[in-house]
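User: Hello, can you help with two protein structures?

Assistant: Certainly.
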Amino acid sequence: MSTAAPPIEQHATMRVLLITAAAALGGFLFGYDTAVINGAVDAIRGEFGLSAVATGVAVSCALVGSAIGAWYAGPLADRFGRVSTMRVAAALLAISALGAGLAFGVWDLIFWRIVGGIGVGVASVIAPTYIAEVSPAHVRGRLGSMQQLAIVLGIFASLLADAWLANTAGGAAQPLWLGMDAWRWMFLVAVVPALIYGALVFGVPESPRHLVAKGRFEEAKRVLRDVLDLRNEGALDAKLADIRNSLRTEYVPRLSDLRGPRMGLLPIVWVGILLSVFQQFVGINVIFYYSSTLWHSVGFSESDAFSITVATSIVNVLVTLVAIALVDKVGRKPLLLVGSAGMAVTLGLMAVAFSHATGTGASLTLPGNWGPTALVAANLYVVFFGLSWGPMVWVLLGEMFPNRIRAIALAVAASAQWIANFVITATFPSLAEMGLTFAYGLYAAFAVISFVFVQRAVRETKGMELEAMTD
């Protein structure tokens, strides 16, 4: 049994809300950096004369870096602290934005995108870990969902910036300021939020659980007092003792701690990995990385394609707000099940719509009402994803693992997510040439499988203390 202080004595203070918001800004950069390529794809393809395969690599290369960053974020966070690791992420994202915007060739661009990807991968692990560790249990789902809200706001900001810059220049491949093409400015403007993020994280306290793991008990006690508003010394001491017991601080967490009886890993680690993989295998980032190109290819003007993409990102933001309102009331698992079912239906409808397409490549068209049908289905798909698998996976990854392995297990799960993201993103141009019906039908099949997986393997964590999580 946990010896944690009763939940009724914990409160979500304004301080913890501000701390969470500052940490979640890493998610904003995560969203911006990964989606900014959407508006630049066609311009980059034309600038460097890329094939479909090379385009897929150029778009998805950042995800390789993200997998690397996510893999090492856990050990870095456990050794140097959550806050220091966030600062590293901010620096990498600022440097990569500058390098990508000034790239002189495709390999140069790929290098800087990989550097940025490492920063994104670090941010993807450290933000949910930190937020979960400073949040009171009864609002942890809502605060954890701020990570996803920040991600979708970053996606929205990047797509809005892409549209504005392209329209201002008269096209993404047209020169804008200082003689540089608009697509270059799409990358360069990310330097500003990266610097803001780096400045803000200097003002947040270290995670109390990391402080306890390092034996800094008085500092941990002060942070717990502030973020949980625990003024009863007995309850505060009990919470501190609970964390100390759960962490088993006699050793530093290692990858070997994740070993278990099922194919070499603990069952809970496999659940985290598969949650991450399914979040990507339903194809969500095809919408956010290639949607401008996709809508342009089926008859919409470049300007209209950008506008549609921005509208889709607004839908994503709005439904994420709904998810935040529901997560601690409805629970994580029911929302995931609803999302899987809805995505299966809408992806299936998109597959049917594109089965009626005529032409190929840039001359692809959808006759009659199939164009609007595909557009509505795509946005409904985003609704179901944004309500469920978008925020819920990050909430679960931040809270589902036992304290002693949380950061390193989350790093493994997040690495799996980025690898899955890379596979989907890199293969989409080739799959699209084979036929969009096949591509969206494949994603629909994964949505169906994800429903079965959640039903059988995912446990509800609503209202549970982090110290109550088990292997």
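That covers the first. Now for the second protein you mentioned:
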Amino acid sequence: MLQLTNDRYTIGGVDALSIVERFDAPIYVYDSATMKRQYERMEGAFKQVKRLRINYACKALTNLNVLRLFRGLGSGLDTVSIQEVELGLLAGFDPHDILFTPNCVSLAEVEEAAAKGVRLNIDNISILEQFGTLHPSVPVCIRINPHIMAGGNSKISVGHIDSKFGISIHQVPHVLKVVKALGITVEGLHMHTGSDIYDAEVFIRAVEILLTAASDFPDLDYLDFGSGFKVAYKEGGIATDIEELGDKLGRRFNEFCGDYGRELELMFEPGKFLVSEAGYFLVRTNVVKTTTASVFAGVDSGLNHLIRPMFYESYHHITNISNAGSKKRIYNVVGYICETDTFGVNRQLSEVHEGDILAMANAGAYSFMMASNYNSRFRPAEVMVHDGEAFLIRERENMDDLLRGQVAIPSLERSTHEVEA
């Protein structure tokens, strides 16, 4: 966490400015202690459940060091691409501890995941029929769409009736026919309603829908209730009360297991809940520009490095960590991309000077992962603060990285040389 002591900010006990001095900016910094705290908090919230499996949704942040941290805590892994499966295996996860939950991928990708021995989560009837015909002995999980509208933004609400995700709850009778006809073993049922869920009652409504469907599948080993738990982006902001949810859902799940006749495993796939608050994006102020209407703090980054404010209208708290003790002024914090890339409007910051370092909070999830080379800019470095020490866990890109994979057409290359001559 970002903490202020004697006018100096620290992350995980390490001076934040010293990290920039050592590794430069812009840079993503992650505090492993915060990740561990969030994981253990979730474990504690569901302690009444006998079989609990937390699968880290690694699309939030796939750096191998992050994956290894969660593996060491006892986590499984939720993956959405064959590349994430590969990363999970490289990080040392047992294939059985990896759940593959893709959307709209080819049969070939599903078969490749199956060949690696990971668990499969199928979210459409077409692939269920094709895969079940070819591999009826491979157990699968079925992703159900409960038609519950949840999530803080339309782009991250995935459980409603118009969503591309999952098999409609109303199509369960069709699924049962396919399963019976092909002799498929359904080992799990899954749902995920969306991100930024803070209302436990809405979540429990979706749970009841999945439990009703589960009664029709006699060979289940686990139920996966997704995640999407909200974290607070502002001081006093709304967040999922995970302890309240754990109490209500834990009791209901245990009751269902009693009715079902055996102890099932309760699964979740948190991503943002585990890593969002652990991350900070540190940027350097290039210019302070005063216009007739605003004062802009223009920084050495943009939507190419942190697109969430522009994509999701997400809020990231911004702190001037270079000038903690000074008077406050109002700034619009903007980037250097040739589109409007505003990180924050009308933010009250300690007076900003050119060269000051600004820290953007809640940058652990879906931040570096969405970074790009737009405007032909390099992607930033990543650092993890672990056990009181800052470790470089991804190098900053350079021109070689930008050119890697490009192949020259010989005639165009020759013509370029001729023009230069």
